Amino acid sequence: MPRNQLFLAPLVVLLLALGSLSSPAYATGADFNDDGFFDSADIDALVAAIVSSSTDLLYDLTSDGLVNKNDLAEWLFLGGTENLGVAYSEADANLDGTVGALDFEAWNVNRFMAPNSWSGGDFNADGIADGYDFLIWNNSKNESAGGNISSVPEPSACLLMLTSLLLLLRRRH
Ligand SMILES: [Ca+2]
Ligand SMILES: [Ca+2]
Ligand SMILES: [Ca+2]
């Protein structure tokens, strides 16, 4: 072995040791349950952590010492990039890459309740699936991951939206 390589070998070992020492329990990725998949189990756990004001830095994807909605946005970017090559859209409850009737239904079955999960329709992670989450869905509907807007509206989604708006209006009177 040449002398310069003999010199470098212990240096590399030292750097690797320092690297492992300086990485505490911060998130290394969006696969919180370490099962190799970036899926609903992970984003649901993150939403539950945000709702419960968790301080578990496992969920601190932005490495700012806080567990909040910024980490949710970061998860949508990381998870979508991993699975689809582009960030997930807001309100893609079932993480299939589009925002449509299925995602509305996920919200609708938990309407005005506390699903404590992304897949249950709490898209802003405030602890309840309510009108604010509906508005997020409404602003994102027909949107594919990466922000492509479909030019063809889904009749079923439009019908569901109108039904929901009527329900919301009735509750106010
Ligand atoms: Ca996982
Ligand atoms: Ca979807
Ligand atoms: Ca909500």
Describe the protein's architecture and organization:
With about 170 residues, the chain is mainly alpha-helical. The chain has one domain (about 25-170): Dockerin domain (Type 1 dockerin domain), CATH 1.10.1330.10. Helix content is about 45%, strand content about 5%. The chain has helices at about 5-20, 40-50, 70-85, 100-110, 130-140, 155-170; strands at about 100, 145, 150. A three-stranded antiparallel beta sheet has the order 1-2-3. Helix 2 (about 40-50) packs antiparallel against helix 3. The protein is globular, with a radius of gyration of 21 Å. The model is unreliable at about 20-25 and about 150-155 (pLDDT under 50).
Number of domains: 1
Please tell me the CATH architecture by its name. Orthogonal Bundle
How many beta-strand runs?
3
Helix content: 40-55%
Stated plainly, the CATH topology is called: Type 1 dockerin domain
Low-confidence segments, given as residue ranges, are 18-27, 149-153
Small molecules held by this entry = calcium ion
Described by its quaternary structure, the protein is single chain
Could you give the order of the helices and strands?
HHHEHHEEH
Ends: how far apart? 84 Å
The CATH first-level class comes to Mainly Alpha
Sheet having the most strands: 3 strands, antiparallel
Within CATH, the superfamily carries the name Dockerin domain
Mean pLDDT across residues:
83
Content of β-strand: under 5%
Structural class call reads mainly alpha
| Cα-based radius of gyration, to the nearest Å | 21 Å
